[in-house]
What does this fold into?
Amino acid sequence: MTPQFNRGPRILLGPGPAMTSPRVMRALTTPTVGHLDPDLLKLYAEEQELLRYAFQTKNEWTFALSGTGTSGMESALTNLIEPGDNVLVAIHGYFGERIAEIAARQGGNVDRITRPLGEIFTVEEIETALKAKAYKLFAIVHAETSTGAEQLHIPQIAEAAHRHGALILLDTVTSLGGIPLKIDEWNIDAAYSASQKNLCSPSGLAPITFGPRAKEAVEKRTKPVNSFYLDLKLYSAYWNGAHAYHHTASATMHYALAEALRELHEETLELRFARYRKVAEALWSGLTNIEVAPFIPLNYRLPSLTTARVPQGVDPHKVRARLLEEYNIEIAGGFGSLKDLVWRIGLMGQSNSLENVKILLDAFDKILNTK
Amino acid sequence: MTPQFNRGPRILLGPGPAMTSPRVMRALTTPTVGHLDPDLLKLYAEEQELLRYAFQTKNEWTFALSGTGTSGMESALTNLIEPGDNVLVAIHGYFGERIAEIAARQGGNVDRITRPLGEIFTVEEIETALKAKAYKLFAIVHAETSTGAEQLHIPQIAEAAHRHGALILLDTVTSLGGIPLKIDEWNIDAAYSASQKNLCSPSGLAPITFGPRAKEAVEKRTKPVNSFYLDLKLYSAYWNGAHAYHHTASATMHYALAEALRELHEETLELRFARYRKVAEALWSGLTNIEVAPFIPLNYRLPSLTTARVPQGVDPHKVRARLLEEYNIEIAGGFGSLKDLVWRIGLMGQSNSLENVKILLDAFDKILNTK
It folds into this structure.
């Protein structure tokens, strides 16, 4: 009547979750302690330092929220926006659109600028849009999970936002731990991410960081944040201050994320980025050989997430189903207007290996030649 | 530089998290699959059936949200309340107050009725309050984690709410799986809970159920729900409908919760309630023997969470610290005005055993007699 879930490991080559390391899996089984246990609070202090390393920041407000990446997005927006605030969102994919939707639900007066899927913004385009109104907040996605594009020129964009009086919020869900990201050096006011992508932990926690200007904006609010659950002042009191009870955080998930962050710190950001690039280049050259061309131009193509064009006459959904059923490999389809045009192939965490690239390319080759 | 968290198991006798079973711990290490994996969607279907068993409901909208119990509370309120809606909250402890605060943040026009800590409401008190205004929503806590009191007469209270045109929302964080709870038979419109209490899984998921009237209220909204992350229509599309992407739910946490729910189903609700009561009675009689009297009268005292009066002249915080440091036992202190007056002792999940009661009573006895 109640069968156990009993399937073996999938080869996860989608946009996340990524496969987790044996060390992270073992960390999950550490016996639970209470959410105010002195030893858990010590773990938080260590986890914060490791998150600051990953984000390259000294921000005091650096936590891992008890929710998925979307809770990080919602927390950043609900803390920074008061009803009627002007918000500008630069949209170059599905997750930019999600930012705009959540900002509007939080009462923001939202303006959008958009680029077609697969393109990114120039600094000038953003600067022109910033001139239209006095925006309190400008938000943009660093690495678009829906297209595999890296928005370049982030430091210059941050500089433009500040020159026009806006805070900058950066979605780093698919960039944190996967491509260079320097919160302090680039003057990013707020950023959030997710545990299950380049950080290679299970899904369920959302790293977030708020710099001095963003923190000041929260402290100067005239109305409380809509969300109690995602209120960062309450998080700060729980993590940094008197350790006041806010919610029953999951020790289990923090054991796993802290262990995954230790692995990142031991490898170093520099060597991880180099490894990701090397493995991605093997994928790109292999895809080109079997006439499955990468969709995004090389100069802003993400190493951790590749969109690949579906060859003429091929049903992309049948190929995905065969990869899953015959080869135990998960890749993802395209989003929105790219639904039938691309596949999305992730190479993150334990999924990021030359062996997995080889297995995938061989499977692709067999399936495409027996369609 | 980055030491591993390496402490042995605590004996967790606080208000949750409870200790988890070896089966649940093993389930955590099941390899991750994607959030849209066909096998995970099958697990959701099973998990929903098991949640319906725990809640005693046939409600279609029965999910486990990707957050802690507080996210369940916030989801229920943000989905049911539109700005300006009249909301009545009956408060007999800290978590009732939390409901009122979140309801106000969601734009509700909130009225409160309160009982002193440790007391519960009569049906007449609630009926009188319901007459004051046309309330859209009435909310109350079934089992107050802050006091250890069970609010009795829930079916009669639900009937009164409906007679006065209000929906009833029941906080079942500490009741689900611990004391009888019959969502359909009692005509409860909406309820939420948490994974780490009587369900005995790690923290991180919030079971929720919405009946036909609550679902209709959500569907008739004129404005979108403030929260995108906790929007139940989007959850329904992900769990029940076309399995549309909403957020990257944690397969890991669902493996654990589904396994814990299987254990509940195998034991049966009836036998679990009987076991809880038997172990609680051993605690109560042992506490009375060492002159640490239970705070809540027997007729509405929760078996899964006992508040115990601190004897005259004893520093409750020093006793708690000694229990943790010398005996590796976690219990909790009182909330608010009960801070220096009671301890809170939980007996849930694997924590619920006669052995743990004996260990705790012996430790209490030694500490109180060597103070």
Notes: Residues 11-16+268-368 of chain A form a domain with the Aspartate Aminotransferase, domain 1 fold (CATH 3.90.1150.10).
